[in-house]
Write a structure and sequence with these properties.
The protein has 184 residues and is α+β, with helices and mostly antiparallel strands. It folds into 2 domains: 59 residues, no CATH class; 87 residues, H-NOX domain (Alpha-Beta Complex). Helices cover 50% and strands 14% of the residues. The longest helix is centred in the middle third of the chain and has 19 residues. The structure holds protoporphyrin IX containing FE (HEM). The site of protoporphyrin IX containing FE has 27 residues, from helix 1, helix 6, strand 2 and helix 7.
């Protein structure tokens, strides 16, 4: 997996927890490269899984919750790292629709050895189904990314994970308008 995803995970732990916790996670994960990652390098995705496992032990939070939070945070980091991929987008639906055909395609131009996951989007009226599939078990990160982009564009949409979809290598997310609150 591209180093950017793992290096940013270290940065997220530093910011969301603390630099000391990030150090403790790296030590506990027993990583081959001592937690040093270059953006363009390629590393086993198991390094990221090891870090999430270690952080879960240290923070007593479930791995799935941590992976989702990381994805949410990563959504806004991608905007800082790859601003050109966000030009012209004003809503989350159009942006998410273009991940497979545009954004991840740009990623593979930047990093020819990248193996991005498949993000298939089906639009049905006002609803959107985002399907994630990968040889990597990172469906929770995908969930966080979808939530993160909806938050960024400020759209009034909710994300519901289809509990019938097999995780963690695949997942389906339904993006839709929240049901109106009853006043009674
Ligand atoms: C402009 C927006 C985006 C950029 C720049 C981007 C960039 C990247 C990059 C650089 C990788 C690493 C690929 C590799 O290691 O070979 C990656 C992987 C990934 N992307 Fe994206 N991505 C974007 C949008 C999204 C969205 C919206 C989702 C979720 C629906 C998503 C889900 C993932 C996941 C879960 C991975 C981890 C690898 C895997 O599961 O196989 N990405 N992305």
């Amino acid at each position: 997996m591209k180093g950017v995803i793992i290096a940013e995970m270290v940065r997220w732990i530093e910011q969301a927890f603390s630099p000391a916790i990030a150090d403790a996670v790296i030590v506990r994960s027993n990583l081959p490269g001592d937690g040093v990652y270059t953006t363009v390098g390629n590393y086993p995705h198991t390094d990221a899984l090891a870090m999430l496992g270690a952080l879960s032990e240290i923070s007593s939070k479930p791995v799935a919750v941590l992976a989702d939070s990381y994805g949410f945070w990563l959504a806004s980091r991608f905007m800082e790292i790859y601003p050109e991929m966000f030009e012209g987008y004003t809503d989350a639906v159009t942006f998410l629709r273009d991940v497979d055909g545009q954004h991840h395609r740009e990623v593979t131009k930047l990093y020819p050895d990248a193996r991005t996951p498949s993000i298939v989007v089906v639009i049905d009226g006002e609803e959107l189904t985002v399907s994630y599939g990968s040889h990597r078990p990172l469906a929770d990160v995908a969930h966080g990314l979808v939530r993160g982009y909806i938050d960024y564009f400020g759209d009034d949409l909710e994300v519901v994970r289809d509990q019938g979809s097999p995780g963690p290598h695949a997942a389906r997310f339904l993006v839709r308008k929240p049901a109106p609150q009853s006043s009674g």
